[in-house]
């Protein structure tokens, strides 16, 4: 993917690490060296000229991967930004808005300053030991380790949570740079990492915060638009987040909208996205969702996400490889829903006695007991939540849970799959902005998504009030188009959204039982359907599951059971399977360092001996 790699590396080692980054023929590159340090950058060049800045001034070099949106407001150019970065990063960085990573290297001082934005919208990793190195793909750094070993704690996260939390990666010795953090490396002291940004969650006593939130949302979209030259594409569904973004962004740019021809399979997203596009005067294009395309894109998607996001999380984004006539910049509304109240619901907080219990209740892929049965490690899956809670200095259960959510879910899940899109087009995330974050984090718990009475919090009440209210305030035309999830327009009262969600979900589940529609809400997954019907995908997944059974940190019998029940349709286990196979694929490539599919030949396409064969 586009990004960078660098550190205290000689020219040959730097080139070898850069060669490990995902590469397309049309990428442009720049390498800068000073003293014993070097940085190698891959970028989109003329396709997205404002998406990357490479800087050099004598013995100092640097790069901004992404875009800072308020440089004009701060009266800064690249020279001024890097001067201040070296002088006092903790004074500069809180002032910067935008989606970026910034790295500065002072060769004379033998110093590196590396920083992520306030939300960690672009992933960055570093080698915790020697040689000091950093980069945007874990695989590029793993080559520097003499004897890389799997981090079983990360495997546990990937399985139960669906992605990795904290500063862990799948390999010991390579760490994730947290959001809102600066790494200051000096030759005599090594890397020191400190947070420069801390979220606060002082709840608004009423809905007055929505005035600031709406104004800030409009401003961040306008600021994002100013950083883009060229053609713009936007993923558009029948939901609320993407239509809000489409409405605001279309005020500043012509854009093309793209809609999956699935999710759900009944075509409602296609119909609603077409209506939104028509109202806004935009072209809407259908993007095919095909199982064969997933077979082709699986390996590079796992590489781009460094193996730390489960397949079920990034499968939709992998459809970027199916777009014809790719725009210069491709944007999605990912992260907006979580910030607008859908991420952690009221039931998770009100029904929990501790922040870690609230986090587990709100954000886990599989049940903790199921994870414990699958894992043979001394690391209990719940430990991750407890560790992240201990890092927080928030005053109460709600604020602590939200702090952990912002520090982990957004950078390590929602935005962790962005490199897939970034591999094909420039990307932007507008939400890493001071005024927006200060407004949205004032949301009261009462405005977060509720639950249907008498369901013990297990069935959400459709959606969160701020999501609906934002559409109402931005464009009444968009508020009159039904919301795919609740089947009623945003202009309607919230109780109708709750009722619409319950009725719609019930109908979808009846449809699933009657006609076998496996794409409905609460039904079986699309990937599970493909696994049962597409031989090439099944063979690929089974090969990965077979080798996962050989790992000391997995229980082979449990994996075989999941595999068998998924294949026969007896039960739905794709949430667990997707974490197993993405981690296994990455480990095989970067830790085992062998192409086992080639090595095993025909054995690599053999399914489990006790697994029945379905008809194709």
TrEMBL record:
Q: Where are the transmembrane segments?
A: none
InterPro entries xref list: Asn_synthase, ASN_synthetase/amidase, Ntn_hydrolases_N, Rossmann-like_a/b/a_fold
Question: What are the boundaries of the region Disordered?
Answer: 596-616
Where in this chain does the record put each Asparagine synthetase domain? 229-308
Q: Name one GO biological process term.
A: asparagine biosynthetic process
- Pfam families reported in the protein's UniProt record: Asn_synthase
Q: Which GO terms describe its molecular function?
A: asparagine synthase (glutamine-hydrolyzing) activity
Q: What name does the UniProt record give this protein?
A: Asparagine synthase
The record lists the organism as: Haloferax prahovense (strain DSM 18310 / JCM 13924 / TL6)
